Amino acid sequence: IFYVIYYLVNFFASMSKNDVRIGGWSDNVVKKAVASILKYSNKQVESSEDGHDEIIYLQLSVFSMPTEGPKEAHAKPIRLLHPLYDYKDKDVCLISRDYKDPSQKEMKKKLDEIAKTGNVKKIITLTKLRSNYAAPEAKKKLCKEFEVFFVEEKILPQISKVLNGVLSKVHPIPINLFRQKWTTAVEKACRSTYLQKGVGTSYSIKIGRSSFSNDLLEENLYAAIVKVVSDMPKKWANVRGVYIKTAESVALPVFQRGRKSDR
């Protein structure tokens, strides 16, 4: 089984590389950028107080943004070759909606079942999060207490407002609890990333962590960019630049193209 998985991972990794259809693209430039950003991010982790991994982003600059269905496009999950998060053997906290209405008995029952699995050490409702963790010190304590945070997809925008960036370094993972089994939902959430609209004509996609090896980050980069570009109008002709960065670093260029006439 191990060799089958190893073969499939390498097969899909090479397939992603071969699917990059853009003149001037260089695998060597990708390797150098990946090595540089990992070296930088690991130094940042070593000097930080909490020691949390840094998230690595792929930044994609395009000539023109899609004009139809932007909300649906940005919310679409992108499956990566290697999971962004490792929740096994970690202290896990789940932040859920409030299920007080009698009609929501099944949802409340599902949460109780999840609590009994032992995978989740604490379940906090949105109401309790607002009331019990309003003080900055309480938020910081919560951040240090758990290594992985899962958040129900529908309340993710509210979580960022409530926590005011305190949990930005642990990056709460959006999860859909009620369409599938808990283990299936977790595996899918950990292996998915999401397309985020950046400033102007750019996208930002989480593709790895500072603890990744060069090969893992490189393979996720290819998997993400091939998927994103395949869903865009004009495909590769619309790509202006590709960069890799952390939340605080400068963007390292992987590929740059000047004008539309260069396409």
Automatic annotation (TrEMBL):
What SUPFAM superfamilies does this protein map onto? Ribosomal protein L1
User: What is any Pfam family matched here?
Assistant: Ribosomal_L1
* Organism, scientific name: Polytomella parva
Q: What InterPro entries is this protein classified in?
A: Ribosomal_uL1-like, Ribosomal_uL1/biogenesis, Ribosomal_uL1_3-a/b-sand
Q: Write the protein's name.
A: Uncharacterized protein
